[in-house]
Design brief:
Shape: elongated
Distance between the termini: 100 Å
Strand content: 25-35%
Largest sheet: 8 strands, parallel, barrel
Structural class: alpha/beta
CATH superfamily of the largest domain: Glycosidases
Number of domains: 3
Number of helices: 12
CATH topology of the largest domain: TIM Barrel
CATH architecture of the largest domain: Alpha-Beta Barrel
């Protein structure tokens, strides 16, 4: 009897263990045979990623074959800077080299400033704005294919490399990289497929001609072909950028630099253009007198010309233009035409003293401008001040957005203490400059390869009447005039934090102070460019410098 009980219990335990093992096996394998959450829907695959479940709104496929994607999804997957003007019901969307505008109810598209008829425009459904993929194809350099048999839409970027293989025997495409996984598609002999990635465990992720994404054994990859070559925009300048601003007023001709050469630079930025006050778009064309000869001199010396375009710090005029879609478009066309007319290599946008309320519309201006210039091979750069300053001089810039859309951002790292300062101090102390570089890289999330560090070729001589309160004044002293301003017997003291020489003396009840910009201080700032892997340096402004500065820039930034 006891023996029978033992046998019975042994059998029960074995059965229980088998059941548990089967349950464990099923639980482990079941996910590999689970129902596809996208089943029964029109699937959207972007660059070999099925993003159907991530769409905020379902796709709309019309009877004529047009495919519509919700504005929110276009912004999420294609253009983070897509702008929707709710008042005019107009969408502005951009890529690296294209700007498109389309208005609800209109079958017209403005593409890079030119009007064209389109079959399908944007539509509104249940309060959601949808953009047709036919417009997206014109802007984003993509290829769209609707595979009706599987109801899968594939969108491939034409800028990305695409590798295809051909199978030489029948192959099952698995849901996961496991033999015990459901089959999502089957490949016949001679059928091609797109390679997506290897998982380093003997499996490769692929996409079939039916649009299905799954896995096959890596050993099945045969007969490779490059279906699409990777397309990259070539940089105008390889290596570090070294730019000097060449300022002159609207009342004189462009500097005649014929017969001269500036070592240690590869870009010049003459003050060719600026806004005028008045109705509409009025421009000071400083290039009209001597500008063509200046560009010719620059190009003969292998310098690129990134002409400066200034708003002359005219806040109201700037605001009026930026906030008018028509005037903003006219200004962009004007800049594009000026770049063509004078054979420019770049435009340097120098808009300062703006309303903080215009921060986003200034970003939109650059969002709309940069692709137009890039389409012509013209570089766009924008000048900005240090973060965390006043509304009109610092908080008026969205540095993160601006850096994302332009080619380069010039950090004007000077006037730490300027004309409005109530305290004598350095124009650009090393510790202040470095702290702000860290802010650009950190809180502003600007990529280092976008930042060009602007440095002053001047300083200030501060004067205080020791017998009077609130008597602080200052004058600008060019770097090459510093020694002329100082008494011969004055002693220079090196400040290790500021990395500048400091002088102080008193004469006839006037206390004089100066934090000197010279070759030694500039060398320290150039070191920050290399330390933080910035794009390069810029210098304000030509003819204020000591000649030895250019030898430093040539050596430290490796300018050829």
């Amino acid at each position: 009897m006891e023996k029978n009980k033992i046998i019975t219990w042994t059998i029960r335990i074995v059965i229980l263990l088998v059941v548990l093992a089967m349950v464990a096996f099923i639980l482990k394998v079941a996910p590999d045979y689970g129902k596809d959450i996208n089943e029964g829907k029109t699937n959207l695959i972007i660059n070999n990623n099925n993003i159907t479940a991530k769409l905020k709104k379902e796709l709309i496929v019309q009877k004529d074959g047009e495919i519509y994607l919700a504005r929110e999804d276009v912004k999420n997957f294609f253009d983070p800077h897509l702008h929707y003007d709710a008042d005019n019901k107009t969408i502005t969307t951009t890529s690296d080299t294209k700007v498109a505008k389309v208005t609800l109810g209109e079958n017209q598209l403005v593409l890079n400033g030119k009007m064209e008829e389109i079959k399908n425009g944007i539509l509104e459904q249940n309060g959601t704005i949808y953009l047709p993929i036919s417009i997206m194809e014109k802007v984003y350099n993509i290829e769209v294919n609707h595979i009706k048999e599987t109801d899968i839409i594939t969108i491939d970027s034409l800028n990305r490399e695409q590798i295809k293989y051909t199978v030489d025997k029948k192959t099952s495409v698995k849901y996961r990289a496991k033999v015990l996984s459901k089959t999502v598609d089957k490949l016949e002999v001679g059928e091609k497929f797109i390679w997506v990635a290897d998982n380093n465990k003997g499996w490769s992720k692929i996409r079939t001609e039916n649009g299905k994404i799954g896995y096959i054994k890596t050993e099945m990859l045969t007969n490779q072909e490059i279906a699409k070559q990777k397309q990259e925009m070539k940089k105008q300048i390889e290596g570090k950028i070294s730019l000097v601003w060449d300022y002159y007023s609207e009342y004189v001709s462009a500097p005649n630099r014929a017969g001269t050469k500036i070592e240690g630079i590869n870009v010049v930025s003459p003050s060719f253009f600026s806004l005028k006050q008045g109705e509409g778009i009025q421009i000071n064309d400083n290039a009209a007198r001597g500008g063509e000869a200046y560009v010719q001199w620059a190009h003969e010396n292998n310098y690129k010309v990134w002409a400066m375009f200034s708003n002359n710090s005219m806040r109201e005029t700037t605001s009026k233009i930026l906030n008018s879609e028509a005037l903003r478009a006219e200004l962009i066309e004007t800049i594009v035409n000026l770049a063509k007319q004078y054979k420019l290599d770049g435009i340097n946008i120098d808009f300062e003293n703006m309303n903080v309320e215009d921060k986003n519309i200034f970003s939109l201006f650059l969002i709309e401008l940069a692709p137009r210039l890039r389409d012509m091979g013209v570089v766009t750069s924008v000048d900005v001040t240090a973060p965390d300053g006043s509304d009109t001089w610092s908080l008026c810039y969205n540095r993160n957005v601006l850096a994302d859309v332009v080619d380069y951002m010039m950090f004007m790292a000077y006037d730490q203490h300027g004309t409005s300062s109530n305290k004598a101090g350095t124009v650009a102390g090393y510790n202040w400059v470095e702290a702000n570089i860290k802010k650009f890289l950190g809180q502003e999330e600007v990529k280092p390869e976008k930042i060009i560090l602007g440095m002053p070729l001047y300083t200030r001589l501060w004067k205080t009447n020791i017998d009077k309160e609130d008597s602080l004044t200052s004058i600008v002293v060019n770097m090459n005039k510093v020694e002329q301003q100082l008494p011969k017997e004055v002693e220079k003291v090196w400040d290790e934090d500021l990395k500048q020489n400091y002088i102080e003396y008193t004469d006839k009840n006037i206390k004089y102070q100066m934090w000197i910009e010279d070759a030694k201080s500039i060398k320290e700032k150039l070191g920050l460019i290399n330390q933080y892997n910035l794009a390069g340096g810029a210098y304000w402004e030509k003819d204020r410098e000591l000649e030895e500065i250019w030898n430093l820039t040539k050596e430290m930034l490796e300018i050829k």
